[in-house]
Amino acid sequence: MDIQQCTLGEIVAKDARAAAILEQYGIDFCCNGHRTLPQACPNSEKARMVAQALDELATSATSGTAAAVDYRGWPIDLLADFIEKKYHRDTTKQIDVIQTHLDKICRVHGDAHPELWKVKSLFEESAADLTMHMKKEELMLFPFIRKMVQNGKPPVAPFGAVDNPIRVLTHEHQAEGDRFRQIAELTDEYIAPADGCQTYRLAFHELKEFETMLHFHMHLENNLLFPRALEMATSSETCQS
């Protein structure tokens, strides 16, 4: 694999462990996975360091952990099931935990650190929008994909062609990516201040872990599930015409 020529989405799709490296260097591989490394990272020295880390990863022995799973070979209905059962459930669970901790640190530290109120507001917006977003997938797109795989052709759907919901969902992914960039900036990349209590540090750690999970969740959809669903739908329609 040519790291300089492949898109970031292709790099992570080939080896999911690459996501951790790109996260470390603050490179967006989910919402902007169509870009190559040079396009995403104009700083040549930083790009060189990332490329070196990716090269070392490619030549290392496969760890055998879940992070090294190659999702490209999965049937798309299985991938949809995995996203719903793993990422949707984990997202819902963590939203409640993080909101509880943000409520507490705002009450205790909000006067000294007023930016916490903005972080809390942004996360509440994210929680509401993500909950609605996941419901759209669970009630509309994922059932469509399962029926398409089962029947070998796209089913009749109230939203018309499958590219309609995918276009909306992709736009919503971009909005979430932008929102968490604001949260990361407000929290100094999730570093708690010296006067922060244990809950303060825990909340920031949870926010960072949530963002990492969200990025990989969106990667699986933007760079794997959505393109393959579009390809299958288009291919089926071509064969029938």
Give the secondary structure arrangement, pairings included.
Layout: H1 8-14, H2 18-24, H3 37-40, H4 44-59, H5 76-109, H6 115-151, H7 163-186, H8 198-240
Biggest sheet overview: none
Radius of gyration: 19 Å
Low-confidence stretches: none
Distance between the termini: 36 Å
Question: What does the model show?
Answer:
- The protein has 241 residues and is mostly helical.
- The chain folds into two domains: 8-68, no CATH class; 74-240, no CATH class.
- Helices cover 71% and strands 0% of the residues.
- It contains eight helices and no strands.
- It has helices at residues 8-14, 18-24, 37-40, 44-59, 76-109, 115-151, 163-186, 198-240.
- Helix 5 runs antiparallel to helix 8 (198-240).
- The longest helix is centred in the C-terminal third of the chain and has 43 residues, at 198-240.
